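Entry for 2BA complex. Fields follow.
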Amino acid sequence: MKLIIAIVQDEDASHLISELMNEGFGVTKLATTGGFLKSGNTTLLLGVDDGRLQEGMDIIEKVCKSRKQIAASPITMGGSSGMYTSYPIEVTVGGATVFVLTVDQFIKY
Ligand code: 2BA
């Protein structure tokens, strides 16, 4: 068994959960925050049998879209003055950041 940890954009989360559940996958949704943008994203946990891993990954790839976002990048102004300002930079947030882990045990009490 594998554990898929998928970090996706909030905009894709509902559609993705529906698609996964329609295909019989178990899903847990966590409300999370990206370290760089400091804005909300969604992390999904899926425990899947090895034989269905690729099917789950294919659904995630199909549903999740990459998007461009504007972020504020801090830069130092004035050398030793210690003043800070920020300027906007464009970042492409991926459709999904996915980790796949091997599960030692899967127990339900
Ligand atoms: P955030 O940390 O908010 O990052 C959002 C997007 O900002 C990233 O998209 C990337 O395009 C950009 N970015 C991140 N760090 C950067 C940096 N130091 N300099 C310039 N641009 C940077 P993704 O790479 O698609 O990541 C989307 C979200 O997935 C991340 O949100 C974070 O929550 C998670 N993530 C990505 N890589 C991860 C990792 N190695 N471990 C844990 N979580 C990760």
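NOTE: Residues 7, 34-37, 41, 91-94, 97 surround 2BA (CB under 6 Å).
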